[in-house]
């Protein structure tokens, strides 16, 4: 995945995927398999713990970071420190779009899930994909979770400014409108307080470093605690 406000300036969006399809399939499917295995194992080892599924792209997956520094791991540690009995499953796939998240959701829900964090759409914006398509995919994801009565937290994303004002208005409106439509908890911007800060990002200027992830986790932990209380 390639993201961030440094890319939300004058840099053009990538136009090609640059990978052979069989490599793409392996890279996308393997993390999904691992996420399902982790959920199943977690249920056996800690049946009293709630399971939070973190569905996202490289920002969730922990691109460029040791796994202990990735968002799901830091979030789980923060929740446990706050007194929650919880397992946070890393269902992030680097490079994933909203369409990719949609395609993986059914498989990921094959094991019981108590809540879902939806962090998708950054790659849609970077690739200049039609916001209407992003909206359809996220709408489907949230409708599916709503139908299953799974509480959800929608984390927003912002369109790169170089795509123009009209694109930005249409894209940025997706998240608050869908969160309201489905009664989801809402966080306006996943990278709030981190994007464009060199001290909180990796050398690529795109992905948060461990300290940047910690900033995100500190902001989102109370929202996830509220999410867990909303479980029917």
Describe the structure in your own words.
- It is built from nine helices and five strands; from the N terminus they run αβααβαβααβααβα.
- It has a single domain (5-229), classed as 3-Layer(aba) Sandwich (Rossmann fold).
- Helix 3 (71-81) packs across helix 9 (210-229), helix 4 (98-108) runs parallel beside helix 6 and helix 6 packs parallel to helix 8 (174-182).
- It is globular.
- The model is unreliable at 1-30 and 40-45 (pLDDT under 50).
- It is of the alpha/beta class and 232 residues long.
Give the key terms:
single chain, 232 residues, 5-stranded parallel beta sheet, globular, disordered N terminus
Task: Please state the average pLDDT score.
Answer: 86
- By CATH reckoning, the class would read Alpha Beta
Please, what is the CATH homologous superfamily? SGNH hydrolase
Helix-strand topology string:
HEHHEHEHHEHHEH
Major beta sheet, strand line-up: 2-1-3-4-5
**N- to C-terminal distance:** 34 Å
Number of strands: 5
How does the SSE layout of this entry go?
Blueprint: H1 21-45, E1 50-56, H2 58-61, H3 71-81, E2 86-92, H4 98-108, E3 115-119, H5 122-126, H6 131-147, E4 152-155, H7 165-172, H8 174-182, E5 185-187, H9 210-229
Parallel strand pairs: 1-2, 1-3, 3-4, 4-5
Helix pairs in contact: 3-9, 4-6, 6-8
């Amino acid at each position: 995945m390639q993201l961030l406000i440094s890319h939300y300036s004058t840099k053009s969006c990538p136009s090609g995927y640059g990978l052979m399809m069989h490599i793409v399939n392996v890279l996308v499917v393997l993390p999904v398999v691992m996420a399902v295995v982790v959920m199943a194992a977690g249920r056996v080892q800690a049946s009293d713990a709630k399971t939070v599924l973190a569905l996202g792209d490289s920002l969730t997956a922990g691109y460029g970071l040791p796994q202990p520094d990735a968002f799901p791991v830091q979030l789980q540690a923060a929740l446990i420190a706050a007194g929650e009995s919880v397992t946070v499953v890393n269902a992030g796939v680097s490079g994933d779009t909203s369409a990719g998240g949609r395609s993986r959701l059914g498989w990921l829900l094959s094991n019981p899930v108590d809540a879902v964090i939806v962090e998708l759409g950054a790659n849609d914006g970077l690739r200049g994909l039609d916001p209407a398509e992003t909206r359809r995919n996220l709408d489907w994801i949230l409708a599916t979770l709503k139908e299953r009565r799974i509480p959800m937290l929608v984390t927003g994303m912002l369109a790169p400014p170089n795509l123009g004002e009209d694109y930005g208005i249409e894209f940025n409106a997706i998240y608050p409108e869908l969160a309201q439509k489905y009664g989801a908890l809402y966080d306006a911007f996943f990278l709030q307080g981190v994007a464009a800060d060199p001290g909180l990002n990796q050398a690529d200027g795109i992905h948060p470093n461990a300290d940047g992830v910690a900033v995100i986790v500190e902001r989102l932990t109370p929202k996830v605690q509220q999410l867990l209380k909303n479980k029917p």
